[in-house]
């Protein structure tokens, strides 16, 4: 490990909370967790700012879908399909496990919505729908994926499916993912907005992103997350500040919070050190020598804090940590609200200001000066009877607008 792995400055209250959660997990955990491969580079020049085991074979999980999207973008650009082209949900797509949209067999989806579901929700069923439509068969699409990987210089990558669900032979490296990420943002800038979207609505269903950096990191604008038990929590994360775009590849983290914190830390480090790193650095993702000793892929299943990966103790500890973190945030918000109310009251009645006497009520007798005899009381004149006030017209009931349908 080198100094570049320092966590860096907290970028927002929420990111600080994620950092605190990750540190608590490490403190409570009974297993020593070693970090997986990582790579940080400049998207424009390809210059490497930081690298760690970038040639170590790894299961890509849903980072596979970056390649799936790349091929869809290719076919859109070539005019083979359009954004309004309909693709059908087949039996094979319907059987895929979550994350998924969950369409019934025979249902159709536009390519536009399919891309959004693929990138934002990481929908496995939609990945198969796209592969079967564009292949024009599943196997033909996989062949296209591998041919494109070879063309992009992804020398240690092999694909067997379009979504990244577990397959022993589906492997990649941080360097290969960096080449793919750089290619997709360079070759298809017209689709940049898709990678930065936080949610999409399909009918009445809202699908949200798994990429926590889009909500917490200044300048975050993509790309994709991925998770299976053997690979851990992975992300290819992009951020842009002042015209500089950096991309971080983080593989093998023990939780989603760890993944967000590590990727955010790398990106922040890159922006802080960018000037002199570019001045004295000639290493790129293409010219750095391959690590001939790297072997694998490695499995990090035993480090993952998840019931689904068989680590009940780690999952229980993570649940406790999250509950504590949530309680701390609630306490801070309550205290901030209380302090704000006290501050408002103090401004309304400044210290040292004499209390203002209330004005006498209408019809009350005025105070009589000393030594002056008050006038004799007289009966009040009869006041004419007033008609009861008319009832205010009741507001018409609000009309509930129908949910938008796409």
How would you sum up this structure, described in words?
The longest helix is centred in the last third of the chain and has 37 residues, at 312-348. β5 and β6 (205-208) form a beta hairpin. α1 (13-28) crosses α10 (256-280) and α1 packs antiparallel against α11. The strands form 3 sheets. This protein has a 5-stranded antiparallel sheet with strand order 2-1-9-8-7, with helices on both faces. It is built from 11 helices and 9 strands. It has helices at 13-28, 64-77, 91-94, 111-121, 124-134, 138-151, 174-187, 192-196, 213-216, 256-280, 312-348; strands at residues 38-42, 48-52, 86-88, 108-110, 199-202, 205-208, 220-228, 232-241, 244-253. It is an alpha+beta fold.
Find the count of extended strands (DSSP E, 2+ residues).
9
Number of alpha- plus pi-helical segments: 11
Using the CA coordinates, give the radius of gyration: 31 Å
Overall structural class, as computed from helix and strand content, comes to alpha+beta
Residue share in helices? 25-40%
Report low-confidence residues grouped into runs of 5 or more: 1-33, 352-406
Q: Mean pLDDT across all residues, rounded? A: 80
The helix/strand order is HEEHEHEHHHHHEEHEEEHH
